[in-house]
Each structure stands twice: as C-alpha cells, then as structure tokens.
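Form 7-S
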Amino acid sequence: MEEIMDRLGHSDDDTTRKVYLHVTKKLKKETSQKFGQLMRSLQ
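Output:
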C-alpha cells in the first residue's frame, strides 16, 4: 500500500483506499463467481 501511495502522490492511505478499493472488491466477486462455476462443472 505504501508503494502505491507513493507512486500516486497520496499522503493518506484512506485516500488510496477510497479510490481503488472498489476495484479490488469487484475483482474478488468475479473471481469467486468463476471459482464457483469451475467447481460446479467438476461435479
């Protein structure tokens, strides 16, 4: 997180989290859905 903040010029990690955390949540959801599909296809 510190490296990301430094590259973006953010002095507060809260700023970085607010701007970029939503992307992570979306990717986690998509990954979970894909994993579920994979598991169902193996049954």
